[in-house]
Amino acid sequence: MTTDLGTFTVRALAPLADAEMVHGWVTHPKASFWLMGDARLQDVEREYMAIAAHPHHDAFIGLHDGEPAFLMERYDPTEVELKGLYEAEPGDIGMHFLVAPSDTPLHGFTRGVITAVMETLFADPSVRRVVVEPDVGNSAVHALNKAVGFEVLREIAKPEKTALLSACTREQFEAARREGAAR
Fold first, then answer.
1. pLDDT given at position 5
2. How far is Cα 8 from Cα 12, in angstroms, rounded to an integer?
3. Starting from the edge strand earliest in sequence, which strands make up the sheet with 129-132, in order?
4. Pairing between β-strand 92-99 and β-strand 129-132 as defined by DSSP bridges
């Protein structure tokens, strides 16, 4: 995806090769909602090796103009994260994303990242709806989710947090994009 901010692409995360970089991202204070603040490098390697081996969970490195800039995870919510916690619909896919910390923030960058993540997910024609479960206290991501078309379904209790279950259909995403472009 190419925007005014540059080009966004994704590649598969390589658990061992990318672990040191990802460790710096997930342990950064701005990534507190990622719940890995105290993780050691070996913990990150182990986590992403487990994801790579999982049949219903994938991790990707997002690139901005060819440089690593964000982390994206895609999962089957009927098998991972939300299994048994909500009424899944055919075509649901789960998602997590994390923007890498930066010393030179770019205005609108995080919105560009979530838009690229959503485009990547909806590029699969079998995906009809994206579901997310951010921490109820993560107001910044709630605002981003709303901006790209997510609607809050309800609060859910997960073992590690109270989450705000939200969903976005392909049509809601496209409507939000049109509305954003009209501004």
1. 85
2. 14
3. 2-3, 6-12, 57-64, 67-75, 92-99, 129-132, 161-169, 151-158
4. parallel
Q: Give, in order, the Cα–Cα distances in Å from 82 to each of 13, 86, 92, 103, 164.
A: 22, 7, 11, 34, 12
DSSP 170: H
pLDDT of residue 181: 67
Separation CA 74–CA 57 (nearest Å): 6
Q: Which two tokens stand for residue 5?
A: 């901010």
Residue 34's pLDDT is 78
Query: Left, alpha or beta for 70 (phi > 0: left; psi -120 to 50: alpha)?
Result: beta
Tokens of residue 48, six digits: 């992403």
- Residue 16, classified by CB atoms within 10 Å of its CB into exposed (0-12), middle (13-18) or buried (19+), is exposed
- Residues 6 or more apart whose CB falls under 8 angstroms from that of 8 comprise 1, 2, 62, 63, 64, 69, 112, 113, 115, 116
Q: What is the DSSP letter of 77?
A: T
Q: What is the mean pLDDT of residues 68-93?
A: 95
> 129 exposed, middle or buried (CB, 10 Å; 0-12, 13-18, 19+)?
buried
Residues 39-61, mean pLDDT to the nearest whole number:
95
